[in-house]
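Why does residue order matter? Because the sequence determines the fold. Keep that principle in mind as you read this record.
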Amino acid sequence: MLKILHKLGRTEGAEIAEAALVLPLVFMFLLGIIWFGRAFNIYSTMSQAAQRGAIAAARPTCATCPPPPAGNWSGTNFADDTTVDNAVYAVTDLSNFDRNLIAPNPPVPGPTFCPPPNGCSPSTGRITICRSVALNGPATPAQCGVLVSFKYPFQLYLPFTSLNLQRIDLTATAQSRMEN
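Structure:
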């Protein structure tokens, strides 16, 4: 009888059982760190891309040239929507974003506009560009600028959790003061 009790009190294999319980949790934390790090990287890239687009839209292509008849925004020296899109895509392409997944993200609530010409338009259906936006709200005098906004989907892969395969739309919005 003593031999049986002595065998039951042994701890040979307890380490394996503990490892079997702890390693999946450690693995889940590691996956979580990796996927949330990737989401932060995508968000950071999106923010930089939106800022580049806003800067491209707010700066005249040629400050001393007369407005060209076509190719620019509303007959002004400001860049057209294609130029703004290309400024955004120049940044997003470096992180291998799929351009087809970029979607417009109209500002809510709608912005306050400066005197015409103004308006928000999804250029090529992917990036929302709002021009002649009052950046400082209803203050007088209004500081006019450009607002560029878009969203991009991100899907988490965290098996055995409620977050597995969850789709999150990451949004980026940037504004820049218009230069005359």
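Helices lie at 2-8, 14-58, 81-92.
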